Protein 1
Amino acid sequence: MNDIIQYFETIPSSHRALILAGGIALFWLIESAFPFIRFEYRKWQHAGINIFFTVTTIIVNFCLAFILLKTADWSVQHDFGLLNWLPEINPWLFAIIGLLLLDLIGAYLAHLVEHKVKFLWRFHLIHHTDTWIDTTSANRHHPGESVIRFVFTTLGVLIIGSPMWMVFLYQTLSVVATQFNHANIVLPKRLDILLSYFIVSPDMHKVHHHYVLPYTDSNYGNIFSVWDRLFGTFKTLDRDKIVYGVDTHMKPEEHNKLSNLLAIPFQKHRSPN
C-alpha cells in the first residue's frame, strides 16, 4: 500500500493523460471488434464531439486543480474530515473507506442532484443526449457540468478529509471505470450480474442511459454499485430493451451537433415523459 500511496502522491500529469488515452484506445478497439450494438453512425465524428468535451473537462479541472489541492492539504494539516477522525486502521481499509466515500459524495450524490435539480439537469442533459453510447461517451460532459462535478468533488474531499494521493487514485479508477461501463460491449450475463454487486457493470449503466423514466433516474453510481443498492436507486432492464438517448432530444440535430449541445443548457426545455 505504501508504494501505491507514494506513486499517487507524485503521479506525473503525463501518466494521468496516458491512462485516459490508453483506456479510450483499449475499449475502442474491443468494442470495434466485438460491439454490443452495431451502430449506423460515423464513429470518428461521434468520437470527435465526445473528445471535445473530454478536452474541456480536462481544461476545467486543470484550471481549478489548485482549489482541490489546497482543500486536501488543509484537511490533512488540520485533521479535519471523517477519515482523520477514525482511529488508526489498516492502510488498505483506510483507502477503501476513503474511495467509497469519495464515490458517494463526489459522484453518486453529484449525479443524483443533477437529475433532481432542473437547472443542473440542463447541463447534465448533454451526456444523456448521446444515442450511440460507446467508450468515448464516458467524458461527454458540458463544461458547466464539469464545474458542477468539481464542486461536489471538492466538497467530498473536505467532508471526508481525503489526502491528495487518494484523490488522484480515485480519479484514476474513475476514468477507467467509466470508460469500461460506457463501452459498447457486452459481458456474459452471469458475469455482468456478479460484477454489478460490487462495481457499476456495463449492463447496469446501460439502464441509466435508457431514453425514458424511470430508468433514466436510476443507477447513478460511478465506480461502486453499493450506493444505488443501499439507497434504492438500483434498477434492471433487459439489455435487449435498451434504447439510448433522452426522449426530449432524439433528433440527430439535437444530439449530434456540437453547437447545439453547447447551447442546450440555455434553451427552453421540454419536460421528459
Protein 2
Amino acid sequence: MNSVLSVNNLSASYRKNTVLHDVNFEVQQGSLTSIVGPNGAGKSTLLKVILELHPKLTGNVEFFGSPYSKVKSRIGYVPQRGSVDWDFPTNALDVVTMGLYGQIGWLKWPKRAHRELAMDALAQMGMADYAERQISQLSGGQQQRVFLARALVQDAELYFMDEPLVGVDAATERAIMDTLKVLKSKGRTVMVVHHDLQTVEDYFDHVLLINRKVMGHGQTKEVFTKDNVYRTYGGSLRWTGEKIS
C-alpha cells in the first residue's frame, strides 16, 4: 500500500507546555485509524499541527510525499462540534456547499451543479429534508451529520475527524461509521480522534495510541492490547473492558 501521511519528529506546545514530543508514524492508503489516548494527550492538537492550524516546534509532515500547502485540496477535516459557532446564520445546505469552495473559488457564487453535489452529500447522511434548516435549529447528531456531509462533498483522499461520535445518538453513530467504512472501501484514508475504547476493535482496522508521544501504532488486532492501552492511559484509565486482549 502507498503512504498518504508521514509524520517525523513532530513536537508542539501550548503556552510553553509540551503537548506533543517526538511523534513519528506513517499512515497507509485505505486505512481507517482511531487516534486514542487520555484527556490532554495531544490528540486534537496532533490534527491541528498536522493541518497547520497550530504551529509545530520541530518535525516534518508530508502528505502523498508533498507538503500540506501543495495537496490541501485532497484533504478533508471535520473539527470538534464544540469548536463551531452554531449560531452563525446559515442553513445546512450552505454549510455543505462550503466544502466545495476549493472548486467554486472564494467570492464566487455556487452554481446549480455545486448545489446538487451538496444535496447528494446531505442525502447520503440522511439530512436532505433539513437542507433549508438553520444549523442552530438542528440537534447535535444532525449537526454532526451536516459537517460530515461537508467533508464528503469535498471528495477528498484523506480525511481527519476530531471526535465525530461524541454526543450523537446511536442512529447517527451507525450512520457515521457506515459512511466511514464506505470511504475505506473506495480506497480513501480516514483518521478519527476517538474516545470510546469499547468500540475501537469493532470500528477501526488501525489504531494510533498517543500520550504526548506515540505509544503504539499499527493494525488494531496487533496493537490494541491491554498492555499498550494501560501504558498509554497509565493511572487515568478507569475502564477495564474484557475485549482488549
Protein 3
Amino acid sequence: MRDAQQFPLIECFDAFGVPDALPQLPLSLTYRGATLEGSALLDTGANVSVLPYSIGVELGAVWEEQTTSVTLAGNLAAVEARGLLVSAQIGNFAPVRLVFAWSSSDDVPFLLGRMNFFLEFDVCFYRSQLMFEVRPKS
C-alpha cells in the first residue's frame, strides 16, 4: 500500500488462554485543546467507533453537553452512548476528525469501527507477518 504506515499486531492471550494477535493502533486524540495518547482496537465488525467514559472525561468532554444519542448494538446494546467528535492524529498522517460513540461506562473497549475510522483510512492486515498497514483515504 503506497503512503502507508506499518504497525505491529500486539500478541496476547484471549479469555480462554489461546494466543492471539490484535491490531491495536496507537493514536493521539485532541478535544478542546486537551490531548490524550492511547491505543485503540481496529474492529472491522463494529458499526461505530467506541470511546470509554474515562477517556472522554480525560479529554475534557462533559457528558451533559453531548446531546446526540447513539444506539450501540451487540454486547454493548445496554450501554448508553452519546456522539463525540474529536481530532485524531495517527502516525505522521495529517489529523482527521473522528466521531465516537462515547459510552457512559468504562466496561467497553476503545474501538475504531466503520463509522468513521474506516471511512477515513484504508487498512490491510497481514496476520502471517504480525503487522497491519494504515493509509489515509485517497
